[in-house]
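Q: How would the structure tokens look for this protein?
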Amino acid sequence: MKYYSKLVVLLCGATLLLFSSPAMAEEGDEEAQEAPAETSAPAASASSAASGDLAVIDAKAAKGVEDREAVDESDTFSAGDTVTVWVAFRNPADDAAADIVWSAGDTEIHTYSMNIGKSYRWRTWAQLKVSRAGDWNVAIRDSDGNTLETVSFTVSDS
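A: Here is the predicted structure in token form.
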């Protein structure tokens, strides 16, 4: 896979960013990218989803991701910080769609749309550089618009 990735870099660098790097945008960006989604064995503490239902088994705000896990989890950030929302899904059915919707107060700022494959633990993340101080919410929604989980944090002036 390493050699294939290098070939993709040489042929089409923008495509590589879409499929093999964490999603990152600034407020107002129109183009969304999704992070690479990873699968692994089921987590022992995760609650079981009903058959055929997409479920969030863990979600958190953090300062980054290392080895496909959130690092420096926090509920407070400063204006100008890049916030990472890390999500683990359980999807016992075939492919499903999900949205990660960032809101500052009552204003929707950015939405990432992604496909979630069949997996006991499908990990992905999205990043946004935040510049507005205040209370933020990130809603994780299924394809029907149902909120599966909400991650909340506060952004202070820098």
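Residues 22-156 form a domain with the Immunoglobulin-like fold (CATH 2.60.40.2550).

The first strand starts at residue 23 and ends at 26.

Upvote if useful.
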